[in-house]
Design goal:
This protein has 16 helices and 13 strands. Strands 1-2-7-3-5-4 form a six-stranded mixed β-sheet, sandwiched between helices. Helix 3 crosses helix 9. The longest helix is centred in the last third of the chain and has 20 residues. It is globular and about 60 Å long. The termini are far apart.
């Protein structure tokens, strides 16, 4: 990685045939104002609806007429715009990105139309039980704080957000938030630097960034919550809280355990729930890492009659990992598989640039792969057992069930 400016980095890949650009801000849905949950996601949607120079249609046509792709995304703690385009069109891509970051206008008419789109998106998620269940899981884990609400917000909060709300957040918070601009492609550094300078990204004026405050998180007591839905399948999420993402000596053992439990078709829960007993089609684990803590979980889609046995089996597997360390052979196989999976992820330019950008915003440095590799090599089965005892002791359960099913 080459640092071109304090907030601008470039990864030269001579064999690449396109340029990938990522603009990542250090602000996410956890920073939504109280009563306006979903505001940043709304802003992400309407960012493309026009700038001082162009309409939304012109912005997309400008990129797509050259074969490019333009997209934005919101997470709990970050917001980003990503762009992929042919190297010859880099100047157009960077100038468009600069307009979106500095000159968005949020026209009233477009905001009203997009509100209906987001309300339909909310309805779509509610129609997909798996999506809805996982989207609302952290409501149960956190009693208070910005991580609690879904990124998209709620129908009543989306209804309350105005064009002025979007403009104020854009001008007062997003434009004041720290950002990182990451690029990768085949062009020499001098061409990248020249394009950045021509499009305003290397403005000599040094900007001081103001951290955007978010309310502190309050962990809720462990609980089991069941909702009846007009569905045929049981949807189950079991999970809890874990260590901070960047506390590698604590978070990597937990991530390895989740890989063991539900990281693929040879994982422990997949082999048991699906392959041995045939209780459901889908089972996997997830890990949401944040700067101060993490949220982990297991998702399973099950036949209604299998719920009691499947739930007991999952709890037994968690208890087994707490009570009994993996054998040396099991541990070696798990570490090998986990590291191999990470190697595949890091091969992706999108994953690599996103990881580096997050690290720069959270820690002030690019991701140090060698550090966590050395930590992985230093871990023992006992370390994973301790991680299980810490994370799996208190769990939250959230279920969507057909009306006739009782826990």
């Amino acid at each position: 990685m080459i640092q071109i400016a304090p907030q601008v980095w470039y990864w030269l890949r001579p064999t690449a045939s396109s340029i990938y650009v990522l603009l990542l801000w250090n602000v996410g849905s956890r920073h939504d104002p109280a009563g306006k949950e979903g505001l940043l996601h709304f802003l992400e949607h309407t960012l493309f609806k026009g700038t001082r120079r162009r309409t939304g249609r012109t912005i997309f046509r400008r990129i797509e007429s050259l074969g490019g792709e333009l997209n934005a995304f919101t997470t709990k703690d970050k917001m980003g715009i990503e762009l992929r385009i042919a190297p010859a069109a880099l100047n157009i891509a960077l100038s468009t990105l600069y307009e979106l970051a500095h000159e968005a206008t949020f026209p009233e008419k477009e905001v009203e139309k997009e509100r209906e789109v987001i309300l339909e998106e909310l309805a779509m998620y509610e129609d997909i039980p798996e999506e809805s269940l996982l989207d609302r899981f952290e409501e149960q884990v956190f009693a208070e704080g910005g991580l609690r609400h879904p990124i998209i917000g709620y129908p009543h909060t989306v209804q309350s957000i105005t064009a002025d709300d979007l403009r104020n957040f854009y001008e007062r918070y997003l434009s004041q938030s720290a950002f990182v601009l990451m690029l990768t492609g085949p062009l020499p550094q001098r061409e990248i630097t020249a394009a950045l300078r021509r499009t305003g990204w290397l403005d000599p004026e040094q900007k001081r960034f103001t951290p955007v405050a978010s309310p502190p998180e309050v962990i809720a007591p462990k609980s089991t919550v069941q909702f009846e839905r007009p569905i045929q399948q049981v949807h189950l999420a079991i999970g809890g809280t874990g260590p901070a993402l960047y506390d590698w000596t604590e978070s990597l053992p937990l991530q390895m355990l989740l890989h063991e439990l539900g990281g693929g078709m040879s994982s422990r829960l997949f082999l048991l729930l699906r392959e041995r007993y045939g209780w459901g089609y889908t089972v996997y684990t997830f890990f949401h890492g944040y700067k101060e803590r993490s949220v982990w979980g297991i998702y399973a889609g099950l036949t209604p009659e299998s719920l009691p046995a499947a739930r007991s089996l999952i709890m037994r597997e968690l208890e087994r990992l707490m009570r009994q360390p993996l054998s040396d052979r099991q541990f070696a196989a798990l570490r090998r598989g986990f590291m191999g999976r990470q190697a595949l992820l890091w091969e992706s330019p999108v994953f690599r640039l996103n990881a580096h950008a997050r690290n720069l915003l959270d820690l002030g440095q690019i991701a140090d792969v060698q550090t966590w590799e050395s930590i992985l090599h230093s871990l023992t089965p006992s370390d994973l057992q301790k991680a299980a005892q810490s994370a799996f002791e208190a769990v939250y359960e959230r279920l969507y069930v057909p009306k006739e099913v009782k826990l």
